[in-house]
């Protein structure tokens, strides 16, 4: 039984979990910012990417930034209806948030911490 715990510890090393948490937090910040700009600032994509905000071949022929072309593309939005669309960056934000929660959760609620709490309560 102790060997099983050793294998789990090496597979889910707390240092690796901290790296996953840090990287997913950076991803959340980036996709959260892009989602905010897309939803609440009509000229925001042009401000951060430059260019006139065109899409596809038209944007490439006008020499616009590929960043702007990608973020303003029809594929950058999940269409719910003709009037409502969810930026794909928002879906990315929630995916990064899930990774962050799943990677940091065991660090916050590990068995050793719960045992320390129980020991202090009985002591």
What's this, in brief?
The chain is mainly alpha-helical.
Summarize the structure in words.
- By secondary structure, the protein is mostly helical.
- 72% of the residues lie in helices and 5% in strands.
- It has seven helices and two strands.
- The protein has helices at 2-11, 14-40, 44-49, 56-61, 66-71, 88-108, 111-122, and strands at residues 77-79, 85-87.
- The chain has a two-stranded antiparallel ribbon.
- A hairpin with a 5-residue loop joins strand 1 and strand 2 (85-87).
- Helix 2 (14-40) runs antiparallel to helix 6.
- The longest helix has 27 residues, at 14-40.
- It is elongated.
- The two termini are 28 Å apart.
Task: List key phrases describing it.
single chain, 2 strands, mainly alpha, two-stranded antiparallel ribbon, 7 helices
Task: Set down the secondary structure blueprint.
Blueprint: H1 2-11, H2 14-40, H3 44-49, H4 56-61, H5 66-71, E1 77-79, E2 85-87, H6 88-108, H7 111-122
Antiparallel strand pairs: 1-2
Helix pairs in contact: 2-6
The residue-averaged pLDDT reads 76
Ends apart, CA distance between termini: 28 Å
Could you describe the largest sheet, including whether it forms a barrel?
A: 2 strands, antiparallel
Task: Report the uncertain regions.
Answer: none
Task: Give the H and E element order.
Answer: HHHHHEEHH
- Summarize the amount of helix as a percent range: over 70%
Class derived from helix and strand content: mainly alpha
- Identify the overall geometry: elongated
Rg over CA atoms? 22 Å
Strand content: under 5%
| Sheet with the most strands: spatial strand order | 1-2
What's the number of extended β-strand segments?
A: 2
SS element count, helices: 7
């Amino acid at each position: 039984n102790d060997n099983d715990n050793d294998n789990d510890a090496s597979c889910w090393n707390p240092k690796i979990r901290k790296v996953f948490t840090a990287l997913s937090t950076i991803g959340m910040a980036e996709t959260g910012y892009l989602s905010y700009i897309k939803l609440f600032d009509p000229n925001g994509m042009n401000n951060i990417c430059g260019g006139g905000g065109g899409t596809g071949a038209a944007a490439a022929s006008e020499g616009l930034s590929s960043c702007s072309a990608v973020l303003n593309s029809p594929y950058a939005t999940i269409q719910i209806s003709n009037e409502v669309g969810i930026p794909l960056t928002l879906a990315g934000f929630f995916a990064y948030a899930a990774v962050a929660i799943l990677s940091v959760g065991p660090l916050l609620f590990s068995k050793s911490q719960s045992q320390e709490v129980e020991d202090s309560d009985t002591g």
